[in-house]
């Protein structure tokens, strides 16, 4: 069943999502494009910038991640950046037209220490610049989520990455349930939820559909769902995974769009190996957010000029900051 009457459903059955995912690709894209245009402004794409504020040396064993200390990936670890460095990067991002600035830390979880206090300070300063501030810092408890909110945090990214079943093949140092709990804490604190996953981790189609099912049946859909294609990094256990097919990215994006019509669906990692034509199909299928800037956290992303040219060619415009805000900034 599709979204008639503009209704937002959180009671999707696995079978319904499976049926959508497996539709003939052109039919799937048309349906997603229609839902997209019913609920979103078709020409608008949110532009976000990432900054790794604390890189590498992470104790977790996420099989895809170049920042896990246990894999030899050549990523240069560094401690928490200085405020000035972060503000400089945020200014550059704002001047380049980004409206969301996302700070990532290679932490398993937030600890109540001086580094967290410093991150809270950075959040306040970036928020004061008029940017939507997002963080991805690993697990947080309710109290930490509340402190982030008080500091001016707009969104928190915490990905499910894959299905509950496949999770333990990819990460053993924490549980799927831990991820769900953090998302709950973020939601309760009134912070916008950003949660999605990665394809290309050796998962089955069923795993992909299950992950979408978990997201689409949350009591409230995440406000953003990033769809990442694995960036295979030498030294990680997944370095030899085959490149994700663009058709699979389109199926994921379109199914997310149809099941979660109001959500920002982000075409995230993986763009640097996609042509403009391939990215255009993703936008048509309902993607309406990207990361801009020549680096994601540690891996390459298309550069600013390429994206400018793509926006001009496809007639896309950057979305304004704080549109559909849960509540006004400050
Ligand atoms: N340490 C925190 C955590 O794991 O929640 C935050 C940073 S972590 C790098 C953020 C997300 O980046 C991961 O959840 C994963 O979805 C994504 N990611 C990491 N490495 C990736 C890769 N090689 N390809 C695609 N996505 C990746
Ligand atoms: C998300 O879903 N993708 C971004 C962001 N959220 C934090 C991270 C992608 C990381 C890709 C690998 C890297 O650059 O280290
Ligand atoms: Fe650490 Fe996050 Fe990378 Fe996992 S994804 S190893 S938690 S930085």
From TrEMBL:
Cofactor binding mode and count: Binds 1 [2Fe-2S] cluster. The cluster is coordinated with 3 cysteines and 1 arginine.
Residues annotated as signal peptide: none
Source superkingdom: Bacteria
Cofactors: [2Fe-2S] cluster; [4Fe-4S] cluster
One Pfam family per UniProt: BATS
Residues that hold [2Fe-2S] cluster according to the record: 102, 134, 194, 266
Occurrences of domain Radical SAM core (ranges): 43-271
The reaction(s) this protein catalyses: (4R,5S)-dethiobiotin + (sulfur carrier)-SH + 2 reduced [2Fe-2S]-[ferredoxin] + 2 S-adenosyl-L-methionine = (sulfur carrier)-H + biotin + 2 5'-deoxyadenosine + 2 L-methionine + 2 oxidized [2Fe-2S]-[ferredoxin]
UniProt entry tagged with the keyword 4Fe-4S: yes
Enzyme Commission code: 2.8.1.6
The keyword Kinase is annotated on this UniProt entry: no
GO molecular function: 2 iron, 2 sulfur cluster binding; 4 iron, 4 sulfur cluster binding; biotin synthase activity; iron ion binding
Job of this protein: Catalyzes the conversion of dethiobiotin (DTB) to biotin by the insertion of a sulfur atom into dethiobiotin via a radical-based mechanism.
Family: Belongs to the radical SAM superfamily. Biotin synthase family.
PANTHER family reported in the protein's UniProt record: BIOTIN SYNTHASE, BIOTIN SYNTHASE, MITOCHONDRIAL
Subunit text: Homodimer.
Protein name: Biotin synthase
Organism lineage string: Bacteria, Pseudomonadati, Bacteroidota, Cytophagia, Cytophagales
